[in-house]
Amino acid sequence: MEKKKVEAIVIREVMYSESSKILTLLTKELGILGVISKGCRTLKSPLRGASRILSYGNFYLNYKKDGLSTLTGVDVLSSFTRISSDLSKISYASYLLELFEQVRKGNEEEEVFDLLKTFLLKMNDGLDEEALALLAEVKCLDYLGVHLETSFCCVCGSSKNIRTVSVDAGGFLCDNCYKKEKVYCDKTIKLLRMFSLVEVAQISKLEISSEVKKEISQFLESYYDKYTGLFLKSRAFLSNLKKIG
Ligand SMILES: [Zn+2]
């Protein structure tokens, strides 16, 4: 066993024995990691507060490379309390945890962790959770190896007279190359471009009309289905939530 300190977010918790939990951490340095938090369900445990989903901080471990590591302490940096007290935000945050877990599994880059952290901080600051989730889906595409082309027409390379965005073509299409693809509204096209370019940490406002969110969501859902092969349980849950809403 080796002692390690990792920056991490708890993405899953499972009860274990009478008093413990097994936590899944998305760590900056080591990817996805299972740890046992012994005795954390007892009232006096110093691990109690941090051993729950959405805890973010520095986690101290007895690290086992090919097995379950043991949690020995946590410096909590945030518990995202504003998210935890809002059902809609919790649902979208759960979706982000599941999405980023899949992204990190196929990707060694530490910036995947920073990106998830930034999204949760923005959501906790009060930015619209639905718009943030759509932005996150766009940001994850490159990490998943399925780039969406929003700089120019993906058939002829022209950056002028963009007509629509196409799942089959993999991005923008210009007037000349357009055949009979579905036409998305100008705002949807502009936002997809903005989403590709923007630094998430720089955003202080994200207000998008519900019609445009719906279009972007439909486009991205088809795009994910066609190219990524990801099935995310919480996405199905969100679709149901939207139908009810
Ligand atoms: Zn073209």
How would you portray this structure in words?
It is a single chain. The strands form two sheets. This protein has a five-stranded mixed barrel. A two-stranded antiparallel ribbon has the order 6-7. The protein has helices at 81-84, 87-105, 111-124, 129-143, 186-197, 210-227, 233-244; strands at 2-16, 20-27, 31-37, 56-63, 69-78, 162-166, 171-174. Helix 2 packs parallel to helix 4. The chain is of the alpha+beta class and 245 residues long. A hairpin with a 3-residue loop joins strand 2 (20-27) and strand 3. The model has no long low-confidence stretch (mean pLDDT 94). The site of zinc ion has 7 residues, from loops. Zinc ion binds next to loops.
